[in-house]
Design goal:
Strand order of the largest sheet: 6-7-5-10-12-13-14-17
CATH topology of the largest domain: Rossmann fold
CATH superfamily of the largest domain: Peptidase S8/S53 domain
Radius of gyration: 25 Å
CATH class of the largest domain: Alpha Beta
Number of helices: 10
Shape: globular
């Protein structure tokens, strides 16, 4: 895991260096020609033209330059810090500019901060990084998928034969309990060869327009679209190249034995479609949120068939969070004929596996970046695209899902295997290929390696936080707070929930990880100003984790305020124009709260970060899914 700041005092960007990515030997013979390729790009602007020129550097084995988004930067705050200030506005625009937080609530806040048109994002990030309370800041990089354009045609599934999948199917054809997240440009969920294997959120009811599992996403039944911020993770409605994620999904898990089209490495699997790449590429903020969604919703594998030259600490942190929860991150190495993989495949985090592309002859494809950890078939790969259609693509994008699918197949046969065991099995069983660190993956050899190494162990639970505090105001029912539970090393573990005090009311008495559990407090049961109790989570009759719950009764302010130039006086929030403030609901920062800003914009969560920019007096409304509301006067001076 990398903990460095992306921008140091000197403004130097972070670079990830790992000796494992240095090529052991040259990829090509001296007399073997290197075939140059160019990504197809649509003319959009002078910036796009510059990017196209940079892409030509692939001919010389260099990664194309990173392109930052022009509208915002990402700022990681230290715990307890307020957001950086901005320029005050007196006439137009909303009084309060909300700063969405992208990281899970148990982590330090990561904010998306807008910048003025024409501002250099790199310079803005460097300036923000120098602000008090800021851990690091970076531009929002835009990444591209790893497909090499190829004429559509039908072909055979030589890639599955090459990695030995048919032999492995004698042991298992996959399990629906294993979830693989496809972080990409969307998945055709209505494709007849994919529909039966699309993930379904067990805690969400379809079509009721409610956030049933309180995860911050309404009706996220089959995944999420982070580009358009809605619950339809299908590809864009138009465009020539919008079936990349659908192709990837088919290699991982097109349904088998259904007399249709093709089959994936897994006949049965749960494909979690997460659309984080739009028609112009994938932004850092969207990709990081998609990775966190996959981690929090039970994915065992994340497929990342995208990347670029921008080394993002924000994405690295999201991948590290996935690592801590036992989630494998499979990343396409890149198609630039470069001597080492590009970002994020070059991350030196234990759950990352970089994947190069091989040919039918078991040679590394000429376009593939070298020195990847493993390789898999990536040339003329037939898979699902538009509903009812199948096409052949090539690229390291097509190689990565062979590895992601194989990892899912390993977990189908050994559900209790750890991330480290699955990763080791993939490495130890690989067949040597020149220019690749470990070699080309092999399904049967990997199963045999895992048979030898995997040993079931006692499951342990991890809570998103170990304590909750409720402030109980007279005549009010405290709002529910939520915690998440995961199994160490990943996977699903059944557990029971019990409170040792009658005034503590858990939302469930039993569940399976990953899970979100709401905790409520009944004021009628409190016997003192400060009461303490515990919630115990039990696995197979043994206590696995304990949550401390504290309830404090008495008059208390509605909110707590942090930030220079921000304070609470006489029941009003006073803010200096341009100040950045953090406003926390007093009942608890994990409480079910919807903040309605003066211009009607809404922010969910127990804490709201904002820049208070337009002078005047306004109202901030605090609502909840239970229907109760509070109002807080705001004075911007």
């Amino acid at each position: 895991m990398h903990d460095e700041k992306l921008f140091s005092a000197a403004g130097d960007p972070l670079r990830y260096v790992d000796a494992r990515f240095e090529p052991v030997d040259p990829l090509f013979d001296a007399d073997e020609p290197v075939v140059a390729f160019f990504r197809r790009r649509k003319p959009r602007s002078s910036a796009a033209a510059a990017a196209a020129i940079a892409a030509c550097l692939a001919c010389s084995g260099e990664h194309p330059a990173a392109t930052p988004a022009p509208d915002a930067i990402l700022v990681q705050l230290e715990r307890g810090a307020a957001p950086p200030p901005t320029v005050a506005r007196d006439d137009v625009g909303p009084p309060i500019v909300p700063l969405p937080t992208l990281a899970p609530e148990e982590d330090a806040p990561l904010l998306r901060v807008p910048i003025e048109a024409g501002t250099d994002p790199v310079a803005a990030a460097a300036e923000a990084a120098a602000s008090a309370g800021v851990s690091f800041a970076e531009p929002i990089y835009v990444y591209q998928t790893r497909r090499v354009p190829n004429d559509p045609r039908y072909g055979d599934l030589w890639g599955l034969e090459k990695i030995g999948a048919p032999s492995a199917w004698a042991r298992s054809t996959g399990e629906r309990s294993v979830v693989v997240a496809v972080v990409d440009d969307g998945v055709a969920t209505d494709h007849p060869d994919l529909a039966s294997n699309i993930w379904r959120n067990p805690s969400e009811l379809e079509g009721n327009r409610r956030d049933d599992d309180l995860d911050g996403y309404v009706d996220d039944v089959n995944g999420w679209d982070f580009v358009d911020d809605d619950n339809d993770p299908s590809p864009a409605k138009s465009g020539e190249e919008r079936w990349h994620g659908s192709h990837v999904a088919g290699t991982i898990g097109a349904a088998g034995d259904n007399r249709l089209g093709v089959v994936g490495v897994n006949w049965k699997v749960a494909l979690m479609p997460l659309r984080a790449i739009g028609t112009r590429g994938g932004r850092t903020d969207h990709l990081a949120k998609a990775i966190d969604f996959a981690t929090e919703h039970g994915a065992r594998v994340i497929n990342a068939s995208w990347g670029g030259a921008g080394n993002s600490q924000v994405i690295a942190n999201a991948v590290a969070r996935a690592n801590r929860k036992g989630v494998l991150f499979v990343a396409a190495a890149g198609n630039d004929s470069a001597p080492s993989p590009s970002f994020p495949a070059n991350l030196g985090i234990e759950n990352v596996i970089s994947v190069g592309a091989t040919t039918r002859e078991d040679r590394l494809a000429v376009f593939s970046d070298r020195a990847a950890m493993v390789a898999a078939p990536g040339v003329d790969i037939l898979s699902t695209t538009a509903p009812g259609r199948y096409e052949s693509y090539e690229g390291t994008s097509m190689a990565a899902p062979h590895v992601a699918g194989l990892a899912a197949l390993l977990w189908a046969t050994h559900p209790a295997a750890t991330l480290a065991q699955v990763r080791k099995a993939l490495f130890d069983s690989a067949v040597a290929v020149r220019g690749v660190e470990r070699g080309r993956v092999d399904a049967m050899r990997a199963l045999a390696a895992l048979d030898h190494d995997a040993a079931p162990g006692a499951a342990s639970l991890r809570l998103s936080r170990d304590a909750l505090t409720f402030n109980v105001r007279p005549g009010r029912m405290p709002r529910a707070q939520t915690i998440t539970l995961h199994t160490d090393g990943g996977g699903s573990t059944a557990f029971t929930v019990a409170a040792d005090q009658p005034w503590i009311v858990p939302g469930k008495t039993k569940a399976e990880t990953p899970a979100r559990i709401t905790i409520r407090v009944d004021p009628a049961g409190l016997r003192s100003e400060t009461s303490e109790g515990h919630v115990t989570f039990t696995v197979e009759g043994k206590s696995a984790a304990t949550l401390k719950v504290t309830a404090r009764a008495g008059a208390a302010p509605l909110v707590a305020i942090q930030g220079e130039g921000c304070d609470l006086r006489e029941g009003k929030l006073h803010a200096r124009a341009g100040a950045g403030c953090a406003v926390t609901f007093a009942d608890g920062e994990t409480a079910d709260v919807t903040w309605v800003l003066p211009d009607g914009a809404q922010v969910s969560g127990g804490r709201m970060y904002g820049q208070f920019v337009r002078r005047g007096e306004f109202q901030l409304v605090l609502g909840s899914s239970e229907g109760d509301t509070d109002s807080l006067p705001v004075v911007i001076e």
